[in-house]
């Protein structure tokens, strides 16, 4: 690749509470939300995600003031869902989704990142359910996601971006392609997380080139291939793998960022590219220097 990168003018770079070690609405091991907002702005990011609902203020007026005072803008909210379990989970799902979607809409964002539920416990490694869905569960997942997309679009004007994620049923290349082929391209798009996809053996550039019209959002992340090899060989759950440092700052891991960003730019549409480096838990002073270095690195890539 040329040492002089073309400007990635369709890519809008941001970061998220995840890059500050935030996984939960409240947790004594996490930095206070004010510090996250201060530091994400100081590190040079313009866009943020809401993170776990309840971490940032949920009153739209207050959150709007806090974000605007730091010259930040919101790109998306995030929800977890278990739609493969069928219609009986719809009411509980919608109760959660509607809260997050309302706040996301109030912040002027247009995207809702949807993460499938884990099939094994993040901390204990206990199996919650089988790692493979039955044909009926695949049908529930597809129809439930389409229903969610329609409701979120009609009521809140948001598009859903389904996030393939380690230790969920939408993880590997095979599962991601099966999910995409089973869902309506006009309703359901992907949040491609480059780190999670690599963690599960996928090739982000190939996915962008093959299913480009379904890529609506990016999470930029890298995995340490050496630690990943150990994680895979031992069957380590995702939570402990993160504590081992399986997610690392660019350009120290895979996939290489430049080819992914170039492929995304080639789609010819505006895309958010939100930096996420899973680091739960982490020392409070660790995230900011990494965030600054990562922003500098991405500028060097043209983003």
Automatic annotation (TrEMBL):
Family matches, as InterPro entries: IolE/XylAMocC-like (IPR050312), Xyl_isomerase-like_sf (IPR036237), Xyl_isomerase-like_TIM-brl (IPR013022)
Alphabetical list of SUPFAM superfamilies matching this protein: Xylose isomerase-like
Domain of life: Bacteria
Official protein name in the record: Xylose isomerase-like TIM barrel domain-containing protein
Domain Xylose isomerase-like TIM barrel: 37-239
